[in-house]
Amino acid sequence: MILQNWWFTTLLGIEDPIEPPLVGDRKADVVIIGAGAAGLSSAYALMNSGVKVVVLERNICGGSSSGKSAGFLTPDSELELAQLERRFGNAGAAELWNVATRGVEMMAERVREHHIPCDLQVQDSLFLGNGKSGWEAVQDEVRSREALGFEQEQLDAQAVRSLIGSSAYSGAVRYKGTYGINALLYCQGMKKVLKEHGVVIHEASEVIGWKEHTVRTHLGSVNADRIIFCADKLSPQLSLHAENIFHAQTFLSISEPLGDDAARALFPSERFQCWDSDLVYSYFRMTGDGRLLLGGGDMLTTFAKNDVNSSRVIDQVISGFKKNFPQLRGLRFIQYWPGRIDTTRDLIPTVINEERTPWIHFVLGCVGLPWATFCGDLVARQTTGRSGPMDEKCYHYFRPDRKFLVPLWLERIIGKQIVFSLNNGWAKYYQVDVH
Ligand SMILES: Cc1cc2nc3c(=O)[nH]c(=O)nc-3n(C[C@H](O)[C@H](O)[C@H](O)COP(=O)(O)OP(=O)(O)OC[C@H]3O[C@@H](n4cnc5c(N)ncnc54)[C@H](O)[C@@H]3O)c2cc1C
Predict the structure, then answer these.
(1) Pick from 164, 140, 130, 166: which is nearest to 276 by CA?
(2) What is the best residue among 55, 286, 369 to mutate for testing ligand 1's pocket, by most ligand atoms within 8 Å of CB?
(3) Average pLDDT along the chain
């Protein structure tokens, strides 16, 4: 098994060239920094609106988190509905779930409208319970979904066994409206669509500073009326808000193609995207070409400061998977890769538009492609005065000064990782906000 992002391997097959870096000084109406799901969604919202848009990306479009992701398109990115309900109440939880659902739909709509070749797979979600506490989590999720009027199916252990060929799980929630995607090909496809509609994109163009209305790269600059930062791993030189962002590491692996018999042993009737109820959960789904994508992590490396490149963690994830699916004992995994996801302390995105710099937006810490897609669209619409009725509420949910259990100044005493994990665990399992 080699250390290499499988999605980069699939990129070898596409013909679109890399966009050349920015050289020289340009003017634009809007400059967007970062071309992951969020930045591309901003650019898409502005496309055809009569404004001149320039996108600056330090890697290639999708070259960071988006293009490393497992491509589960589900509103459940880290926060289950039951967790949102406890924290925000019925109405708030439904609003936020609908935000993430809208993000899923936006991506699927764009793929379909522009025929983006990115292996979009319709795959129902299966949230799998592990043991007794997992079964309770499943039942909580079903209760919340019913209370909030969402559709789902509750499955006991036997029903799960008939769907995924494993007797390891205590139950599951199944729901529709979710997809698998090759998110790197999606980003590259979006690049093509944007270019065809007049958006200027420069790859290999890192923004290293900004002053007033001008952002600077190594070889050039863009002066724009509006600036939208959708950049990850933000450097403190670009914004002091960088200190509000933390990272959670997860590991992915891809198998050789399963073949029909092995595929049926895993998914006897249809293919699902699956994740379990553990705090550091494992997740798997199949790609269109019949490979198994399997991911997970462990407590020690989730909050590690830097990428952990050894295969130790993913080896454990693979061996746990094979215990649950002994019929796939012989399956070979060929590539693996780690990725650190930008996140806030409570797993809800942060969107910043300060009074002293009203022309600048920051979209930070989106955990999940759907949230990133929604937030990119949100700020672009605000930038051009096309806000919708939900938008004000979203700015409220995503405001940077919302309540967190442990304040940032404690980092100096107990360390960034501990502050993050305490806030993270609190937001997920205990936090209740004043509504
Ligand atoms: C291994 C892994 C698995 C994941 N699996 C899933 C999943 O299955 N489903 C899901 O929904 N989410 C998943 N995620 C999370 C998801 O990928 C992210 O939440 C989402 O991609 C964030 O999108 P973004 O646009 O905010 O950030 P990014 O995709 O990180 O985009 C930010 C962009 O900004 C660029 N940039 C940064 N600094 C600068 C600069 N100074 N100048 C110019 N450009 C800059 C970066 O190169 C990058 O392309 C996963 C993440 C990882 C790492």
Answers:
(1) 130
(2) 369
(3) 93
pLDDT band with cut points at 50, 70 and 90 for residue 138: very high
Question: Mind giving me the DSSP string for 114-171?
Answer: HT--S--EE-EEEEEE-HHHHHHHHHHHHHHHHHTT---EEEEHHHHHHHHS-S--SE
2-58 confidence digits (pLDDT tens): 999 999 999 988 887 799 999 999 999 999 999 999 999 999 999 999 999 999 999
From the CA of 47, how far away is ligand 1's center (Å)?
21
Q: What is the pLDDT of residue 402?
A: 87
Residue 302: the pLDDT is: 79
Runs of H (alpha helix) within 202-293: 260-266
207: Cβ contacts below 8 Å, ≥ 6 apart? 33, 56, 58, 215, 216, 217, 231, 238
Tracing tokens 């004000």 back to the chain, one arrives at 392
Residue 276: band (very low, low, confident or very high) from pLDDT cuts 50, 70, 90: very high
Measured from the CA of 283, which atom of ligand 1 is nearest? 8
Closest ligand 1 atom, residue 234 Cα: 38
Distance 30 CA to ligand 1 centre (A): 21
Return d(Cα 196, Cα 191) in angstroms, integer.
9
User: How far does residue 68's CA lie from ligand 1's centre (Å)?
Assistant: 8
User: For residues 433 and 83, what is the distance between their CA atoms, to the nearest angstrom?
Assistant: 12
Q: Could you report the per-residue pLDDT of 361-375, keeping only the tens digit for each? A: 999 999 999 999 999
Ligand 1 atom at minimal distance to the Cα of residue 71 = 8
Contact 100, 77 (CB under 8 A): yes
Q: Residue 285 pLDDT more than 80?
A: yes
Distance in Å, CA 65 to ligand 1 centroid? 3
CA-342 nearest atom, ligand 1: 19
Query: pTM (2 decimals)?
Result: 0.95
Nearest CA to ligand 1 atom 14: 69
Give the closest residue to 230 by CA, choosing from 383, 52, 105: 383
7 C-alpha to ligand 1 centroid (Å): 14
